[in-house]
Q: What sequence folds into this?
């Protein structure tokens, strides 16, 4: 044989497929830290004013 896989055998040169990524993203707990006006993430939650744009939190 010439060193290649025979008929019906898996191609040994092909790596296994990567495992699936877990679904979803970051948890919703960031919602309390996001400014509704500009989308900036604040250092503290709850916050009264946005540190970036100065918008008052409703």
A:
């Amino acid at each position: 044989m010439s060193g290649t896989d025979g008929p019906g055998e898996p191609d040994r040169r092909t790596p296994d497929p990567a495992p699936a990524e877990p679904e979803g993203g970051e948890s919703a707990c960031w919602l309390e830290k996001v400014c509704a006006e500009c989308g900036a993430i604040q250092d503290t939650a709850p916050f009264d004013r946005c540190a970036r744009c100065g918008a008052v939190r409703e």
In short: The radius of gyration is 26 Å. The CA atoms of residues 1 and 7 lie 12 Å apart.
